[in-house]
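Page header: ASSEMBLY MODEL / two components / 400 residues total.
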Amino acid sequence: MSEQSETLAEALASRRLLGFVTLESAKRDTAVGSASTKTVVTAKVGGMKEGATKSGAVKGGGETN
Amino acid sequence: MREGWLCGFGPDADRAAALDQRVRGGLADSLNEIAEAIGPRVGFALADAAPLLETIRRGPVSPGVFAIYTELVEAALRDDVEAASGCARALPPALRPPPRRLRAVTLLDHDLGAGQAARYRRLISDGSDISLPMDAVDTTEAARATGLIEAAVALLGAGAPAIAAELRVAVAQIVLIHSAAPAGDSEALVFDGASSFYLWGAVFINSRRQKSRVEMAMALVHEAAHGLLFGMSLGAPLVENDPAERYDSPLRYDKRPMDGLVHATYVLARMIDCLQRLIASRALTDEEQSWAQNALANQRRDFAAGLATVTASARFTPVGYAAFSAMREAVSIEA
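Prediction written out in full:
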């Protein structure tokens, strides 16, 4: 159990977090919306079919991702 | 040996089950660590958590359990005790109903459980600079799409039974959504489908864009393939390339991170494999056969372009290398 003076984040700092790996990567993932590795979106913009991860810019052209 | 098998390419229901078991094991391990570290402060003491963890280890659980876990971690990382406690309280009810496989649902709490529609929506769309519009489908569309899913799975069962068997294991929920660009918003992302490691076992399908059973089958195969990659890597990147690096994509205007290209190329290979099986099976109507041949040609072209870029520049992780190598051995780009 953690000391009460610790924040929850500090108490979890060295813990294994599924899909987050480490506290630092978890912070980074949260900051950028889980970036390119946790969510994939197959999408189109402006009538052109294409694919995007959710952090990706989106313009036109392809088929999937 | 087992790691190699887990990263294999061909459809395999046993492998999908093993990946699911491994991901659930990781979830239970992590929840155990959370209970040890902060449990009493967020109402998730070890003694209370133990039976929940046993349920998670024992068999498949709803994607909603992963959604709650993710929100619990995020709340803890921003030191939000109240939100973390709320997530801890939400876990037991989310674990109670044993999940059905390939269950079509809408983006409503009625289907997903209290508070879950907002979680699902956020985990699929948060963090992007680009709006990702989506709504629950109405009952008429839900009925149409559910019928189409049943027809798609039946088609796969007849023409590609190994893929159908794998889908039944890999996909717990099919979240039917409606997505269209808001009027005047040319930058809105209108998606066909989506998957997230944070919603393990769920696939999102923009159902109105799926007009036929073969299109729906391909949409399911596509999203399930992303999920298998997530399972192999436990949500981690498949490459060591800096996520800030961007590469020309055969699939898009904009340059993409290498992890996205690996995902796209792998998923295209899975779709090519499925189309080849369906075409060879003679399970398709003449019209579907024509559609499938055309789709196969397009996907082979895109696959070849993606493969060239990945081969030239990817710096794979061990898991990424194993998965991509297995894919290359299995799929030919020649017509």
